[in-house]
Amino acid sequence: MAVVGTVRSELARAVGDARLLVVGAGGIGCELLKDLVLTGFNRVEVIDLDTIDVSNLNRQFLFQKKHVGRSKAEVAKESVLQFCAEADIIAYHDSIMNPDYNVEFFRQFTLVMNALDNRAARNHVNRMCLAADVPLIESGTAGYLGQVTVIKKGLTECYECHPKPAQKTFPGCTIRNTPSEPIHCIVWAKYLFNQLFGEEDADQEVSPDTADPEASWEPAEAVDRATASNEDGDIKRVSTKQWAKSTGYDPVKLFNKLFKDDIRYLLTMDKLWKKRTPPIPLDYTDLQKNEKNLTDHSNESPSLGLKDQQVLDVHSYACLFSASVATLREQLLNKGDGAELIWDKDDAPAMDFVTAAANLRMHIFSMNMKSRFDIKSMAGNIIPAIATTNAVIAGLIVLEGLKILSGNIEKCKTVFLNKQPNPKKKLLVPCALDPPNANCYVCASRPEVTVKLDVNKVTVQTLQDKILKERFAMVMPDVQIEDGKGTILISSEEGETEGNNSKNISDFGIRNGSRLQADDFLQDYTLLINIIHSDDLEKDVEFEIVGEAPEKAVPKPSEDATKNVTNGRGDAQPSTSTAQDQGDLLILDSDEEGSPLANATAVGGNLKRKLEDEDLSETKRMRIETENEGDDIIELD
């Protein structure tokens, strides 16, 4: 058998002839590009919209300090060419979701390799590869954990075959009235930044929530009792930004309003504190007077280690709050009237503000305060990336790619990288790939869903933005009502159906049992939507996705009504398996050590089907329930 380097001559030729698309040039992407060209792949295209930040330099080794601010894709190409000049690399500083990168663009590649950091882009690439019938190698890392899996139309599960857990959110009344965990205070501080300096959002209000169902007292009585504060404590329920502007963004007035007056107002809601420790208001002047005597007995910590990893005292955070407000005020003024600031974890004044505000609120609600490092990790929704994890995962991606090019795609595996060895002393745990979910609303032969909503309240705009784009990850949807007339409800052509946006969908004859056909021609994707009318949805719930078998909820459609809606091209069809109770495909893009993913990977020997343990096939597919109600953290690599 002829061998070229470390592979057979036939495989070496396939490697040389292959044309690859790498989506993402961050932590995994840099390692992957290096591995690909050193393996012999000479025709690689890489796309990434991001630019290089100084925080990337500790793990994205194709970048140097001189590259900060430049395109990741373009610099990655330049760096790789320095040690493999013969490689033919094309770099795109662009979003993979740009309509220019259509199905025909994807069809030109032998393999697509994802090195992404967000679910929307993963969903999109998954659909494009299904439509183009091109194998996709998906990957992700979260700290010491990692995963690689292969997606092939008709042979394996796609990325969307099983629902992914949504990023954790918190009730508004918890954030505004009764925080009990540091993350609640951090979210409040980020909301506060937007309310003061950014784009105001009614859903991100920070003032006490008088509509809290737990606080059932008479508002008039509460207002009377709130006058217990001094002359600056007259609490007026106006826009936070308007009030701040009226004070000239005075740091002391802001401090006393947020950490004294609003807290005193919360204390008037008696029922909130019957079973909770009541908050303790802070006064800026008192903190300055008592600087020498004030100690934070619950956060005593020697001033050792890196500055960002130290926890300061309350007085220091009050000073930091004042200084950061002054700096942000100047930034806002320099931008002119009507300007807004955008919160960025790598912007020092913005990070100072959130660190100070969050810690002051933690202190008020009797929680241990956190270091700037900890708050940055939580506020930025990141797990500190580990360079070696990225390197291992990139190597595994290449190995799976070599199997595909060898014509042995059936030998491909989902491989988990664990933080601790499993009972068989393995860190890498390979599992057999699962067949497609017959009920998947993306890769099934007839993608179909049932949506419960109030047809008299849901507008066409809500249908387009929240249901089709946000929930079902469409990019440019067109919607037709199956009413025998082919009525166009939504068009991706600009301006064609904008007049419909503000109207309720009932205005177009949509009622209980109606069917819609939604097409995304960019993704070569068609979805049939069955409508169930309901006027008793829970408060603030605009719609619900019902079950996996829509024909049980509404009359089963005729063959004529549903033919020709198979997504993508070719004859490959999904398996007819109906494993409706299977667990989520554990792609690492939204988990931390306390999450379902981490729990699954940390004990992989008990939860994953390994090559030699076919009897674990059912166990691996169990839905993993978290024991830790920790906050979801989004991995950026």
List keywords for this structure.
637 residues; alpha/beta; six-stranded mixed beta sheet
Protein described:
The structure is a single chain. The chain has 637 residues and is α/β, with parallel strands linked by helices. The protein has helices at residues 9-17, 27-39, 72-83, 103-107, 119-132, 172-176, 182-197, 219-226, 240-246, 251-267, 284-289, 314-335, 348-364, 372-379, 387-405, 460-471, 559-562, 596-602, 604-607, 617-620; strands at residues 3-4, 7-8, 20-23, 43-47, 88-92, 111-114, 136-142, 145-151, 413-417, 428-432, 448-453, 477-481, 487-490, 515-520, 525-533, 543-546. Strands 5-4-3-6-7-8-9-10 form an eight-stranded mixed sheet, with helices on both faces. It has a six-stranded mixed sheet with strand order 13-12-14-15-11-16, with helices on one face. A hairpin with a 2-residue loop joins strand 1 (3-4) and strand 2. Helix 2 crosses helix 15, helix 7 crosses helix 13 (348-364) and helix 13 (348-364) crosses helix 14 (372-379).
Give the rounded overall mean pLDDT.
Answer: 80
| Relative helix content | 25-40%
Structural class computed from helices and strand pairing: alpha/beta
| Spatial order of strands in the largest sheet | 5-4-3-6-7-8-9-10
Percentage of β-strand residues? 5-15%
Describe the main β-sheet briefly: 8 strands, mixed
CA-CA gap between termini: 39 Å
Tally of alpha and pi helices? 20
What's the β-strand tally? 16
Q: Any idea what the shape is? A: globular
**Rg (C-alpha, Å):** 27 Å
Query: Which stretches of 5+ consecutive residues score pLDDT under 50?
Result: 222-237, 294-301, 548-637
